[in-house]
Design a protein that fits this description.
By secondary structure, the protein is an alpha/beta fold. Helix content is 41%, strand content 19%. The strands form 3 sheets. The chain has an 8-stranded mixed beta sheet with strand order 3-4-2-1-5-9-10-8, with helices on both faces. Strands 12-11-13-14-15 form a 5-stranded mixed beta sheet, sandwiched between helices. The chain has a two-stranded antiparallel ribbon with strand order 6-7. Strand 13 and strand 14 form a beta hairpin.
Amino acid sequence: MAALIERFTGAKRVVVKIGSALLVDGETGQLRKNWLAALAKDIAQMRKHGQEVLIVSSGSIAMGRTVLGLKPGALKLEESQAAAATGQVLLAHAYQEILAFEDLKIAQILLTLSDTEERRRYLNARSTLSTLLSLNAIPVINENDTVATSEIRYGDNDRLAARVAQMIGADCLILLSDVDGLYESDPTQNPEARFFPEVTDLTDEIMAMGGGVQTEFGSGGMITKLKAAQIATAAGCNMLIASGTIDRPLKAISEDGARFTCFVAKDTPRNARKKWIAASLSSQGQLVLDAGAEKALQRGKSLLPAGVSAVHGEFERGDLVTLINQDGRELGRGLCAYSSSDAGRIIGHKSGEIAEILGYSGRDEIVHRDELALN
C-alpha cells in the first residue's frame, strides 16, 4: 500500500476531480461549504510539499437548478445550460472565497471536449494552464455546459479530468467520488464484492465491472471512471478513485490509511508523450539542422532557432515536423512551436531576438525536448 500512496504523494503535478454529490447537498441543493473548506486544507498542504494542483469541479448545474427552481429529475438541454450559467457564478465565487482562507489563488477555466481535442485550442488551453501553475494559481476547471450540447447529455467530468491530466502532463489524477474504489460488483447490493486496491491492466473483464449513474446530480458512474483511467494511464498518469464523503479526503489517502483503487501507468507522462509523437502523428514539414544542433539534440537539449538552417513545407504552430540533418537523414520528429512562416523568419537567430523579429514573445525553443522524439 505504501508504494501506491507514493504514486500520489510523490507526484509533482496532481489533478483532483470533485463530483457533484460531494459538493452539493442532495436534499437542499446548497454547497457543502464545510467540506470544501476541509478540502482546501488538504490542497494547501499539498502545495507546501511542492505539488502543483489543478481542480476539475462538477456542481454548476446542481447548484444552478436549485436557484432557478427547476424540478428534480432529468433536465432538458436548455434547462441544463441555464442551470450551468447560473450555478457556475456561484461555484467560482465559492472556490475563490473558501480557498482564500488558505492563502490559495484560483483561476476559473471553462472547457469543452473540443478544447482538448482540436490542436489549436488544445495548445492555447495548455499554455494558459501552464502559465497559471507557474504563477502559483490553482486552475479550477469545469465543462462549459452553457454552450455544450452532447457534452451535457453524454459527457462527464471524469473523462474531462483525464483529458486535462493528459494535456498538462500530470503525474497523478484523483477522482473523488461517493465510492472508495473499484469493486467486482456493486458493494451496496453485494457486501462480499471483491475490492481492487490496484489495477495494472484495464482488461475487458475490468471494463465490464463499470456500472451506471449512481447519483442524482452526476452524469458519470464507474464506467466513466474506467474510461478516464484508460486515458490517464495511456498518458503516463496514475489514477486513483477514492471516497470524498469524509472531510479532508486527500489527507485520508496520504496519512490515514483510507482505501482507494490505484490504476497504474506503465510509463511517465514525458515518455508517453514522446511515444505518442513518434507513432501517432503525420509530419507536416521539415526543419533542417546544422551540425551543432544535431549534437545538442543527442545530448538531450531542445532545438533552438539558431540551430535551424532551413524550413520546408507549410505548417501551423503545434504541428508535427520532421528534423533532418545537412545530409538529409531523419533525426526525429517533434511539435513545432511556430508556424512555418514564423519559423522561416527566426531560424539562424538567437532566441533573444525572437520578439523583435516577430513582434511577439514566443517560446525560446522552436521544438522543446519534451515534445521531441528522436530516432
